[in-house]
Records
---
Amino acid sequence: MAPGRMLEHLLRSTGEARVIGELITGRDGNNYSPGGESWKCAFAPDESRFAWSCGFRKVVILPWNRYKNCLQSEHNADQEGYEVFAEKVSIDAGFPVTSLAFGTGTPEQDLVPVKREYWTRFDFSKDLILATGHSNGRIRIWDPYTGKLLLELTDHMKPVTDLAFAPDGSLRLVSASKDSTVKVWDMSDDGNMFKTLREHPGPVRSLCWSPDGKFLCSTGDKQKVLLWNMGTYSLIRRLSGHYNNVLSCAFSPDGAMLATASCDTRVIIWDTSSGEQLRILNHMNPTPGVIYMSGENNSVVRGVTFSPNGCHVASVCSDGFLRFWNLMSEEDEPESMGSALAGDSMLNCSFSPLGGAVSVGHTSGSVVFFLAPPMVPSLLHLSRMSVRRSLGDVTARDDLLLPQTLKPYLQYKQW
């Protein structure tokens, strides 16, 4: 069966993901000028705002209604018929934006929607901040309430490819770059860059923190997936299994698993503690040979994200589809799929912090919001997540007596 027909058959055999919102630039994603891409979008940790990198130096921050699971508008339109949003903040970032991330000095597990007193001086330890990475290697820090530039960080020699704030409230910012380095910045110390991690032999493509802020994953060219101890800032593990560049990574909400997306047409789910491969999510069926995977192909997996309940993984692929994978199912086939905008390509995806929606950035700079598949986790799964989040991999501890039959479940070898 031809690849196009296989995709049509797969789309018919799975559920279709529902679109619940769009931010449209009106540009043609297939005939565009470089610089107009939406390389990264982000929800604020408290889900009060959504930052949209819409291309050509512009970032728009919009209010998100975490209860209604949608963008919050003023229920009217401008002269061109576009919806007018409440508290909209537009930023001219000065340079092409290649990444962005929200951060806060409050640990994410303690967050409630931020209510800022506008007359107070900006307080890094209490307020949300927004970081943008740029094609010239600079990083800029913004007040997302006003769009004011607060800091500029300069140390990377090539474009910044990803940014991530520590979720523990420490205000550590990590940045990835095509200069083959990962840098660690301290926002509580006026943005001081205090550590450079140098184990990548080529461009670094993505970063993600473990939920407890103890570990960092960095991925990049030459099949690299590296796991770092962020207490000692030392490399603790190399994960081997991909056949091509690795473009995206995401930890599960309890930190027990790591998902990585690659140009080899696959997403691999890893055991964080052991580095063992738990599952492989193939974006081509039948699975292609290694020679095809390791070269240029039409099924590059560009982004991956975990749902907050740990039950689903979402991925976007260069074949034009968003896939939702139900990890509770024994079938390694997508549960539902969504399509890219006509004449456009998907570049990134992010679950909202409460898990109700997934944002997908496109080459045209546009963003589409999809409704995430509903799932009520079992009490057993919630207990497993609670144990792994608070105690780590208890199966490796000698001071705990566990039934042998329970260990595979706690290690996510059984679902």
---
Amino acid sequence: MAVVGIEGRPVRIEAVLLHGLPAVTIVGLPDAAVSESRERIRAAFASAGIGFPQARLTINLSPADTPKSGTAFDLGIAVAILGAMGGREIGQRYVMGELGLDGSVRAVRGILPAALAAADEGAAMAVPPGCGKEAELAGVRVKEVFHLAQLAEAMRIPCGPVPDAPSPPGMDETEAPPACPDLADVRGQAQARHALEVAAAGGHHMLVTGAPGVGKSMLAARLPGILPRLDMHEAVEVAAIASAAGEFDGRLSYTPPFSSPHHSSSAAALIGGGAIPKPGAASRAHRGVLFLDEMPEFSTHSLQTLREPMETGRIEIHRARAVVTYPARFQLIGAANPCKCGNYLDAPGKCTCSVRDRRDYFRRIGGPILDRFDINVVAPRLSRADLAEAGAGEPSAVVAERVAEARLRQRARLRSTPWTANAQVSGSWLRRNTPLSRESARELDSMLASGETSMRAVDKILRISWTLADLSGRSSPSRDDVDCAFTLRERNGFHGTH
């Protein structure tokens, strides 16, 4: 099974022994790792006590136009060679695994996406040891193979003795997954906490601006703890992406993922890339949170690649050999200092940045990306007295209950639409189905007519208004909801230009 993106594509492996000088030829668009399998297979045959055929051996990977990459084809090619040597058929079965020089079978990435494709066909799978539980998540029949001699013996090919099975890796099944950091750890910052709750309730993108050390990263790290837990289908979808990236640890997690790439990350690292593209940070944050700390320090090109997935929830990468579509329904949380030196908000007198420097600093993010943030909030630095008075805030569990109730109201309201959260709703639906007071409607119309705001910004204000209404249990947004949404949208008057 070739894994292209997070999609498993069946590959039929054929082998034929021909007259001529001994040689091994692999055809069918293999990459370097697949072509090198001939040397690993020769050594594995020798270690397993299997006589390698002294003939011209041609191996075909069909269909030839499907890209094949990685070492997962080793075991399948070895089975095809054993079949060409006169072994009996093993039936319709997908085989994945890397062969070591000692004949052992080693784990490979992409087992879960391959198993999902095999389950659709009702086929069984042979996988490396330790990968059986991952494949079983797809509901497919699985057999673990730990040595090449196992297959040779099953196919009645003379071979050496089958070695003892390796001990399974130690894993405490009762061990609980690491808990998300608690929102109670964040002291003060009432406005930023409220904005985070609104973002969680509606699935909104949020930008937090503040001086270094005010708690921007702390807030972002606690967002997964107040988001609704994933259901089984969503958890398997997230696990399939992690498996395709080679990061799945075998445990199915129902906590939304959290991805925090470094600001030096390239565009390929953010959205995926390579000759055969692999998932990037945006796809690994699917159904969860993508946190970009020090956002203006990212390259402008890298940030602009997020424009489409922020709106559509997917990434489409075109390469000469393949077109890959990744799911990327993430919630973007950005954090930024007010200026390069970081002192503008706390101590303007100590700020060494000019007006132009501050404007250019936020210009690195780019207007199109800034416009796609539903919520913008400024986090001030709290004094020691403010921190002493603030005390511990509400714990994540309490906030998560309100968020879950708001999400239920959204699902009920949007049940006849393709959307499940307010942040996904189209502008045309919002404008048709959002009852506004006469004052609110007049104010928004005036802003549009004067060019003070765009239609996209108005749509985002309406989305946030619905989320505020859902959190309050109202059937439609009130005037206060619209005013609060406008405040959350406008970055409290700070635009990096003052």
---
Amino acid sequence: MKTFLDWSAYDTYGIGDAYSGIPATGGNYAKAVAVCMHSRDCQKTAKGVMCPSYRITGDRKHSTEARVAAFKAALNDGDGDASAVRTEPERRRSFLFERVFFTRTGISFARKHSKSAFADPRLDEAMDLCVSCKACKKECPSAVDMTLIKTEYLAQRHEVKGVPLRTRLFGGVPEWAGRHRPLLRLAIRLRNRLWPIARLAEKTLGISARRVIPEPAPQAFSHNAPMSEAAAARGEVILFVDTFCHHFDPHIAEAALEVLERAGYRVRIARPAPTDAEPDRPLCCGRTYLTTGMVEKARGEAKRVLEAFRGEIAAKTPIVGLEPSCLLSLRDELYSLGLGPEIGDLGKQLYLFEEFLSREHQNNGLRLDLKPSNLPKALVHGHCHQKAFGAMKATRKVLSWIPGFAYEVVETSCCGMAGSFGLEAEHFEASMQMAELALLPAVRAAAEDAPLIANGFSCRHQIEHGSGRKARHIALVLRDALAGVAP
């Protein structure tokens, strides 16, 4: 079976492991699917993120385990890699498991040829409520990476059925914003303000009329002012301004820049390489393309990033990002795009804003001059990827630097927006149900003047939509806490 992502990391999986049957076709992709050992942690509703769709439905067929079973069934009659063919006893055990599982969950699955299996509507049903939160990679004992499995599934589905227009619109935000920013801003403003246009977009494209689509800021992020040598005692750092901060929330990038400069760093904004075909279009991690299954587009963006940072890999210059899903995609998903060993070296230089500050505080004596806070206890919501990669520890540490600043990290699953998921008409209700599990009740219970902190772009918009209150990025909180900065 041809795959769109590089699954070679799973090449040795299944050797000596007690697998529940690797599918007969699919090669290393099938092995990635088969790491599930049926612990059913994805069907728990205690602390943690996994699995948001199971949490709102209570239905086993919307769990990671059910999705694994669906993929196994889809792959088992294909014509893939002969090296992955199982023994007859393994086939029988796997078939028995699938039959029992699908009977109990109510999913009917006909065996099909692998090339058309990815377009089967029943596989679509199994994946329908997956929000690519990455919690399964962290919280599942077997580390099932359903986010990447879903990306491959969508790419395979697009190969058979074509890429839907809505998918191209949502996935192509980096290019729309980078090449046609005025047109994008005008189109979104008209859609948000004129109800008939919103209704038409829902009817023709499936974009929920009940949502306000985030609008690009009047001015994109721009910073060309050089920094004096004397003010850069701590050396140089590169600020990676992602698509969302660049075009939608430039004030966040400006705040991060001010904090880093006040901390004593010479900040250089990440720019495309001089040889880039689009030197004026900002760099992009490719996240929107990955989540929509547009792998070749994602690979193109990743190549731009790698080329831009090629010289920094040897210099080991720290690269700091602001949007969790973007920076952590660079640190994780780039491995799956088959771009070579340099990706591993680059990953060691990538930090979220708060991760970098925390690391410098611990290892290199960084201290920020921060004024005392007299604000009510703040509420902090962690992005799913922050939780999946263990980055919330750095968030807690950095917030603790502000004298008198009290905060509570609310125990939440996914906010429910999940990129474009909450904008899709058929997923609006599910999106709001995810938010209502814990996040929105906690926001409503917080004091009216209590700061709300959420680093995720989608998270902030979900909070505002569901509560009418605005959450802020940690860079803004730290900037406002700097001594000498007016409130």
